[in-house]
C-alpha cells in the first residue's frame, strides 16, 4: 500500500471494501498487520520498543497507528496526520420493520448532514456491525456486508409531483424507508431473525442477534472517470480518501531504514455528527495514547510543542455550475493540488505557521497547492482539526483534496490530487525536525 505508483487501483479497492467505518478500520488494520505493525490492546500494559511500529483500535471504528523511531520522542515530536472514518448515510432503526401496502420496508435514520436526493433510485446494500449472544452465552460482534443489492428507494413519478423540478423537500421519516421485498398481507419479517440467517454461514455459534449498527450504501463500485480518466467517482470519498492517503504515507515512511522522527495516524469515527464520543476526536483516545507513549505529562507537553498535526478532510472544489457559491479568489480546482483550509473563526485549525510549513513542504515536493476560505456571507463547516488542537495542544493544519458533491451518495475528486496529497504527506512524515526557527 505504500507504493505511490499504484495508488488509484489501491484506493478503489479500499473504498470498495469499506462500506462502513467498521469495515474501513478492519481494512486499515489488516494492511498494517501485513506491513509488520503490532496490534496493541488498550486494556493491557504496553512495552514499546525503539523503532517499533504499532496500532490500536477503539469501538472497531477508530484507529491510531504510530512509529516510535528512536527514544527521543520529546525532542523530535510527532509528525501526525488525522482523518475520519465515517460518512453521512442512512442507518437502520432499532425496531425497523414496516409493512405498508404489501411491501416490506425498513425504517431509517439519517446519519450526519447527508444530501438526501441522490439516495433515490439507487441499488442499495446493507453493511455494519451486528452484536449477538453465542450458544455459550457470551456476547460477540461480527461485521456484515451483504454486497448484493437488496433495497431501493423509488422516486415518486413526476406525473404525481409536477413541481418536483422546481422544489423538492424530503421527509426522512416517511419518504426514505427503502423497499426490500413484497410481503402481501403478512406481517413484516423479523429483521433480527433475518440478520441471524445472513450471518450463520460464517458464524455458526449465533444463538440470538441482540443489536446492530447497520447502514445502507450504494452498490455502484468506485471508478476512475472522465475523457482523460482524470477523476475518481465513489461513495465515501469524504473522508476515506484521506484515511487511505494517510495510511499509505505512514506505511511508505515506516519502510525506510533511516526513519528520522516518530509518525502517527489517527482516524476517528463520528466526525460527521460532532466528534463527541469515546472514539471521536473530542473523546480521550488520541490524548490517552500519547500519554501512554510518553509516560508523563511534562514530556507530553514538550513533545506536542515539537509536533504538528495535519488534519486531512476533503475541501469544496469550485463547481462550474455554481461558481457564485465561492469567494472569487478562493475557488479550488480539481487536480490543481491539495487545499489549505482557513477560517478566522477557528472552524479550521490552520494558522500562518502551520500553513507556511505546508506551503514549504509542497514546494519541496514539487506539488501544487491551493487555498480555501468560505464566502464571508456563508457558514463554514469544520473538521477534527480544531477539536484535536484543543485536546492535545499542538500546531495543527487543515488540508484536503477538492471534491464535488460532498456528502452525496457519490462524490467526485481529482485523480492527480490523490498523488499530490500522498507526496506532500510522505515528505511531511520524513521531517527529522520541523523547520521553525
UniProtKB/TrEMBL annotation:
<dbReference type="GO" id="GO:0008270">
    <property type="term" value="F:zinc ion binding"/>
</dbReference>
<keyword id="KW-0479">Metal-binding</keyword>
<dbReference type="GO" id="GO:0008237">
    <property type="term" value="F:metallopeptidase activity"/>
</dbReference>
<dbReference type="Pfam" id="PF02127">
    <property type="entry name" value="Peptidase_M18"/>
</dbReference>
<dbReference type="GO" id="GO:0006508">
    <property type="term" value="P:proteolysis"/>
</dbReference>
<keyword id="KW-0645">Protease</keyword>
<dbReference type="InterPro" id="IPR001948">
    <property type="entry name" value="Peptidase_M18"/>
</dbReference>
<protein>
    <recommendedName>
        <fullName>M18 family aminopeptidase</fullName>
        <ecNumber>3.4.11.-</ecNumber>
    </recommendedName>
</protein>
<dbReference type="GO" id="GO:0005737">
    <property type="term" value="C:cytoplasm"/>
</dbReference>
<keyword id="KW-0482">Metalloprotease</keyword>
<keyword id="KW-0031">Aminopeptidase</keyword>
<dbReference type="InterPro" id="IPR023358">
    <property type="entry name" value="Peptidase_M18_dom2"/>
</dbReference>
<keyword id="KW-0862">Zinc</keyword>
<dbReference type="GO" id="GO:0004177">
    <property type="term" value="F:aminopeptidase activity"/>
</dbReference>
<comment type="similarity">
    <text>Belongs to the peptidase M18 family.</text>
</comment>
<keyword id="KW-0378">Hydrolase</keyword>
Amino acid at each position: 500500500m505504500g507504493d505511490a505508483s499504484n495508488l488509484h487501483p489501491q484506493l478503489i479497492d479500499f473504498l470498495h471494501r469499506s462500506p462502513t467505518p467498521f469495515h474501513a478500520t478492519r481494512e486499515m488494520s489488516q494492511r498494517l498487520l501485513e506491513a509488520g505493525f503490532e496490534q496493541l490492546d488498550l486494556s493491557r500494559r504496553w512495552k514499546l520498543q525503539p523503532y517499533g511500529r504499532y496500532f490500536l483500535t477503539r469501538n472497531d471504528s477508530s484507529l491510531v497507528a504510530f512509529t516510535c523511531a528512536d527514544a527521543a520522542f520529546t525532542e523530535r515530536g510527532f509528525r501526525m496526520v488525522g482523518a475520519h472514518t465515517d460518512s453521512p448515510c442512512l442507518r437502520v432503526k432499532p425496531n425497523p420493520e414496516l409493512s405498508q401496502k404489501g411491501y416490506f420496508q425498513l425504517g431509517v435514520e439519517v446519519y450526519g448532514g447527508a444530501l438526501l436526493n441522490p439516495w433515490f433510485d439507487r441499488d442499495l446494500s446493507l453493511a455494519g456491525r451486528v452484536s449477538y449472544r453465542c450458544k455459550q452465552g457470551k456476547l460477540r460482534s461480527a461485521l456484515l456486508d451483504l454486497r448484493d443489492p437488496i433495497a431501493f428507494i423509488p422516486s415518486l413519478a413526476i406525473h404525481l409531483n409536477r413541481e418536483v423540478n422546481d422544489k423538492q423537500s424530503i421527509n426522512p421519516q416517511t419518504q426514505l424507508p427503502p423497499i426490500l421485498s413484497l410481503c402481501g398481507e403478512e406481517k413484516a419479517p423479523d429483521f433480527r431473525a433475518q440478520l441471524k440467517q445472513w450471518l450463520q454461514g460464517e458464524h455458526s455459534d449465533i444463538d440470538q442477534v441482540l443489536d446492530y449498527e447497520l447502514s445502507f450504501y450504494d452498490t455502484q463500485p468506485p471508478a476512475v472517470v472522465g475523457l482523460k480518466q482524470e477523476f475518481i467517482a465513489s461513495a465515501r470519498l469524504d473522508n476515506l480518501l484521506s484515511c487511505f492517503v494517510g495510511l499509505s504515507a505512514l506505511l511508505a515512511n515506516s519502510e525506510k531504514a533511516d526513519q528520522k522522527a516518530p509518525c502517527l495516524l489517527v482516524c476517528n469515527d463520528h466526525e460527521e455528527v460532532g466528534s463527541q464520543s469515546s472514539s471521536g476526536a473530542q473523546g480521550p483516545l488520541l490524548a490517552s495514547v500519547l500519554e501512554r507513549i510518553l509516560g508523563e505529562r511534562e514530556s507530553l507537553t514538550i513533545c506536542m510543542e515539537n509536533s504538528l498535526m495535519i488534519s486531512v478532510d476533503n475541501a469544496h472544489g469550485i463547481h462550474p455550475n455554481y461558481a457564485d457559491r465561492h469567494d472569487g479568489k478562493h475557488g479550488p480546482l480539481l487536480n490543481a493540488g491539495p487545499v489549505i483550509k482557513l477560517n478566522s473563526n477557528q472552524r479550521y485549525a490552520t494558522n500562518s505557521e502551520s500553513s507556511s510549513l505546508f506551503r514549504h513542504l509542497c514546494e519541496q515536493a514539487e506539488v501544487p497547492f491551493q487555498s480555501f476560505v468560505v464566502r464571508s456571507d456563508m457558514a463554514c463547516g469544520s473538521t477534527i482539526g480544531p477539536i484535536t488542537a484543543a485536546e492535545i495542544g499542538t500546531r495543527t493544519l487543515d488540508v484536503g483534496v477538492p471534491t464535488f458533491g460532498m456528502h452525496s451518495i457519490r462524490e467526485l475528486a481529482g485523480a492527480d490530487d490523490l498523488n499530490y496529497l500522498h507526496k506532500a504527506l510522505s515528505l511531511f512524515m520524513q521531517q527529522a525536525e520541523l523547520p521553525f526557527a
